[in-house]
């Protein structure tokens, strides 16, 4: 399947596994790349030497291109940006700000730069800064979100920029993939469906919560602080929302969620942990290998798009 995104990234299928803190480590990233998509190591707030180790371990499992997701607010972002160049990483996706200050270094090293954006204004800014493509991410997504939906954001970003647009948020099967292409996207990025992949190291308790979730089982916390996060409803979200309603400070709320994603991913604490997942969790109902996921989506989408 050839699109502007497969050509740009040198991959077989235009399916990207979104960078995911704790979840997107080398096993998952390598498996997605080996299956013909683009696997991404989520650097989140990891120190640079851990990111380097993750990249090297992924390289042992695949010779295909891999990516790293850099959270620009991370205090280690400068060092992580350098590690990406030193390790010859092919693709970088960025979140939480503008990667402008790293752009020259990355472009000189041949790294493809793909910022994740939640608005037309940000997409235009990123194009002007030299981005090779953008991920337009709607608020159906798991994790940190903006305010526009995928359905409305993707075509508006497509109209506003000349670089390829990758759609994210709520895409979990061939129908979503085909719909994204109808909206003008040239690729898709998925998170929630890969959380439950066989190669994902996410604790089974967390995977089962995603698999059993219904359409309305996600909750957005942090609206009042300007840092909204979508996750599956549990004791933690109920406590968080109660505190938010009572006017708790940003620090109090942060304290409640300190290390909570790690707790869910690594320890399977589905009561006090943060179970980041999108609205599409309702249609993610089985654990499959990354190859099965990608093949199933491509077959379904090809049939729909060739109708
Ligand atoms: C568990 C989890 C963690 C995530 N962490 C990050 C992250 O660290 N950086 C980032 O840019 N996006 C993050 N995301 C967003 C994904 O990369 C992706 O864009 C999103 O999941 C797509 O929407 P979907 O969940 O509906 O497929 C995360 C998503 C999930 C589900």
TrEMBL record:
Keyword annotations from UniProtKB, A to Z: Flavoprotein, FMN, Oxidoreductase
GO MF term (any one): nitronate monooxygenase activity
Keyword Oxidoreductase recorded: yes
InterPro entries: Aldolase_TIM (IPR013785), Enoyl_ACP_red-II_put (IPR017569), NMO (IPR004136)
Parts of the chain that traverse the membrane: none
UniProt keyword Oxidoreductase present: yes
Function: Nitronate monooxygenase that uses molecular oxygen to catalyze the oxidative denitrification of alkyl nitronates. Acts on propionate 3-nitronate (P3N), the presumed physiological substrate. Probably functions in the detoxification of P3N, a metabolic poison produced by plants and fungi as a defense mechanism.
Name used for this protein in its record: Probable nitronate monooxygenase
Originating species: Eisenbergiella massiliensis
